[in-house]
Structures are given as C-alpha cells and as structure tokens.
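re: that chain from earlier
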Amino acid sequence: MDVAKVLAQPETQAAFREMSVTDRIASSWRLSWLAKAHQHQIVPEGEWWSIWLMLAGRGAGKTRTAAEQLGWWAWCNPGTRWLVSAPTSSDVRSTCFEGDSGLLSVIPQELIKDYNKALHELLLVNGSLIKGIPASEPSRFRGPQFHGGWCDELAAWEYLREAWDQIQFSVRLGTKTRILITTTPQPKDVIIELTEREGDDVVMTTASTYANLDNLADNFKRQILQYEGTKLGRQEIYAEIIDLEEGKVVNRDMFKLWPHGKPFPRFEYIIQSYDCAYTEKQHNDPTANTTWGVFKPQDGPWSVLLIDCWAEHLEFPGLKQKAIDEFRCVYGEGKDAKRPDMILIEEKAAGLSLIQELRKAHLPVMGWNPGRADKMQRLQITASIFVAGRVWLPESSQRKGYVRDWCEGFLSQICSFPDSTHDDYVDSATQALRYLKDQGFLEIDPPPREDDPEEYADYLKEIGHDTRQNPYAV
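^ sequence. v structure.
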C-alpha cells in the first residue's frame, strides 16, 4: 500500500477534514503500519475467532505485530481495558512497553495521555487502559478484568498452565474478547491444545525468521542462522513445534513424582546450587538456582527432591541479596523443618564474587570446579542417578501425573539438553547431584579400586580427570 497516494486522494482528504486531530493521527498511524506489514503481521479476517495464535521464528516481527494490533484495538474501542503479559516483569516493561518494537514506540505520542512505568500502565487519550502483568506472578491475574490482551512468548512462561488459566477468567469484558499470542513455539501442553483448537475459536499464523530478514541486524542474522539445519533451528527459525526431548540423555520417565498433598519427607541434608551468568545482559543465560533435599524413602535408597528452582537475570547486588534471602528459607513442617546446609556455587564469572560475599556474611558456601568435563559430560556423569529413579519432582496440584508449574522449566531444559536454548538449570543440577554423589548420598556404583589400574583409569576419564600418559614413559 502506498500511503502517500492514499492520503493524496480527494476522498481521503475530504474524510480527513471531517476528522478530529487525534483521529487523523490515528488513521495515519494505521495506514502507515498496513503499508509496511508483512502478510503474517496483518490481523486475520472474520469475527469468528477469539484467539490469534502467532507462531513465529526469532526476529519475525512478533512484538511489532502485537504492539501495533493491541494499540489499535485499544484506540478503536474507547474506555476499554487491555492486558499485556510476558514471562517476567522485566520482559513486560523492556520488551512489550518500552522496547524498540513495543507499545510506546508504535503508538503515536499524541494518543498517549500517561505512562506509569512502575505500574506498567499505559493510558490513551480516549480513556483506554493497557495494563502489564508478568506471567511469573499468576495470582495477580485474579481480580482485574479486561476486554482482551496480548500474551508474549507464551511458551517461555514458567507458570504456564496456572497463568494461562487465570487469564481466561480475567479476559471477560465486552461482547467479543480477543487475545493475541506471540511466541516461538515449544511442545508445551497449552501450545499443543491451542493448535488443536485452530478453526474453532483459534486462528493460527506462522512465519519464519526469513520472512523479516531484511529488517534484522547483520550480526543477529549470523547468530540465528548458524542453527540452520538443526532441531533447535527448526524451532527457533522456522517456528516448528518439535520434540526437543526425544532421544536425550535424561527423559521425563526417569523422574519420580512426590504426590501432591503429601508432606515433605524429613530432609537429612539440603543443598542450594547456583550457576551464575557470565554477564548481566538480558539476552545471555540467566543465573539459575536449584534447591535439593536429601531424604531416605521408606522402601528405597537415598534420594533427592527438587524443592525449589528459579532462573533470573540479576545484577550482582540483587543476586547477593537474593542468595542470602534464599538461604534463610525453611523447608518442611514442624520438627522436620530445616534450613539449607550448603550453598554450592560454580567458580566462574559472578560466581567468584558471590562466593566471597557470602563467606563474608558467614554463610556455608563452597566453590565448585567441574574440572575439564564439558556440560554434556557433567550430565552423563550424573545420568545414572536419574536412571536409577533417585530424583523426585513435586506433583502438580491441578493435574495428576504432571510436575508443578514452577519446575516445568527445569524439567523441559534438562530433558532437551543439548538442544535447549539455555543450560543454566543443567549446570546447577549436575553440580549439586555430583557433589551429593561424591559425598556418598547418591552413590549408585562404588568407584573402582585404585589397585585395578585399567578400570580406575577409565573411571578417572569418565569424571573429567586427565589420564594422558607421558609418551616417553611407554
């Protein structure tokens, strides 16, 4: 569409003269967007659908599409309320509202009355309100009511099922609600369910990274296209829903579920394991923590239960305070309640500083050096613990046979490694399990005796020690 030609037409000029100033600005905004939008970025026709599911590769223009469309819905329906949700509070603010393709960038400033950064609220001059609520806090969806909303990167939500269900209850105003979902797909239950509803109340649009390649930075193109031809590339570039967990070292069947409603067992030892990010930049791996409780089942050997996990992008002062706060947590009930016994931190990057600061705070912290073993070797070294059924995860309170929402991210990552986008939970878990194994809690097979040189050499190689011999000694 040639916007200049459309605006120059006599009938357009006549229509514009009858409009208010704000309506002229809004109309120009919309025409400008439609003129440059790709076909997959244009809202589907028809009134039959209530959910627009946009599955697209990285850089395909998902954020811009949603910001343009939600802003337009809010403008065309004065006095309405619209929800914006993303994985974290930071994502809501820095991507959906303040990002280069966010709401504040696409909606003309003349149409904006106020923006409250702290509350994540954008008020238009026509009385419509756009409210941001992070998916990491599902309980905050209780109470507010909306006419529609935008769910960004739905597949990456930590509490996916709980947050999605609460949004269904809160988007209930008006005669026709609309929800726009923009996400790079993953085979999560909610995503699969939505694709199965296509043609019913869901309209689905797909697009690859190549659809918007001309608008992407050269360095990003090089970074993303290096995954061409891989499983991860099929997901992240072509937006295919594929099972990244197929054929991996660890699979879901290896885990046991701690029944919902059953009190925690008596933990003999609790360890908090940290994998610290190399930098504080948002696009790098976050800092991850997993907390494990060691216990003895009535009818089995020593085992571990994942009792907490999280992954966040934290600047160092915030990371230090969070680590201190996490150590103060008490797990279990009554006389069996217990605080962590050990904080385990890999000796790299921010981890080195964190170790020093926590020691100054007189906390029981230990530095961890994985040696020369790479990430895959670390997982393989601890794989026997998973295979033996010694790792337990808490069962969901709503869906029997599934894990709780807060540990789904951990489970997905460790079961899809090395094809997972991040590996922070993998590092945190393997160092904790390796430490517990070395301490004798999770011993599967005793190490070979040192008086059997051949077998012991194989064992040292397995755990990452250098067993190369001096060639001149042969």
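The longest strand covers residues 303-312.
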